[in-house]
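Holo model, pyridoxal-5'-phosphate. Inputs:
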Amino acid sequence: MERAMRIIKEAERNARLEFERIDELMAGNQERVLRAFRNRGISVRHFSPSNGYGYDDIARDALDGAFADAMQSEDALVRPQIVNGSHAIFLALSGLSKPGFKILALTGEPYDTLRSAIGLEGDARHSLKQWGVDFLPVPLTAEGGFDYKTIEKSLTDTKVKIAYIQRSRGYSWRLALTIKQINECIEFVHSIRPDIRIIVDNCYGEFTELCEPTAVGADVIAGSLIKNPGGGLAPTGGYLAGKAACIDEIANRLTVPGMGREVGSYAASYQPFYQGLFFAPHVTGQCLKTAVLFSEVLTMLGYETLPKRGDQRSDIIQAVKLGSPEAMERFCLAIQQSAPIDSFAIPTASYMPGYADPVIMAAGAFIQGATTELSADGPMRPPYIVYMQGGLTYEHGRIAAAEAVLKLTHQP
Ligand SMILES: *Cc1c(COP(=O)(O)O)cnc(C)c1O
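Output:
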């Protein structure tokens, strides 16, 4: 353990500048969120539950408002009834689509969980494809940037009405797209086709930079509340934020055309959603610091990491090439044993629907599946890349990193 702590401390010294930048980021984003609460006059009365149809639910409506301001956008929908991030993204895609529309995917193939929703595989009932909406993926370049040539050519198709960007890397060995890159791409698309609406899958990206994609021209962003913007406290849910006209259309898709956002009650209190949003800048910073520490430590142990020191981060994911199935197992065991919940479980790889290779996962979270809590997973195939993320407190991340050092260097 002593040797592990020496490595951790040296890694922390190496990460000093990155940590300072994250401190500034947390401060800036805390201000952005606090301003949203003050603008909207959030008060204890907004913690009252509602029932039935939920007409005039001031708690729900004020949360939408606070979220809209925090996400630098005109309007937002924040709902426990949005079951996860995929649902939020599907609402954005389907809410803005009409039969015959084409969606140009500027970041290539979408995240796995969206493949059936789009109609690329699996149960196609009610998929976008079945509704007559096509999805055209334009892969990123080898360097991980936008393929502007192909995008420009595809924009001549007047049926293309929506462009789609996935900010986070998901499960691929690339950096997340930065707000600067997203900004450039949006300006490019809108300079050729100002009519095109741009949707950004913002999962894992919230509060990792001082701006959200909505501040740089995105029409709609969507994400999960058991990731960054829930601050570890929101028990479930998803959000959409963006231009008022787009959010209005999506609200009709969310409930009933004509009823939109007027209905929808919540018999528990929205208090953890508000409090989670308040905590989100800090918790996201803890996740980022944990990711930076793991990157430093694993680099010291000889592994290749992405992002590595100096790379601009725009999501909370840290990828590491571990190189062998044993190392994957050891690493995941270290994360699992360091978790507050289910620390006794032993992660083993197994087949999962939708994945070609067995997947190994480690997580021990207060909220099931919440990946703002420290967790790791990866497919069991060469070059054996583990994707880790989360950490409600940096101190927890640090303990897990020390445990990972022990496990990967074969010490008991
Ligand atoms: C998490 C995530 C989603 C949505 O996943 P859910 O599990 O449905 O919340 C979509 N895209 C990306 C990049 C994600 O990280």
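The mean pLDDT is 96. The longest helix spans residues 271-300.
Archived with the compound record.
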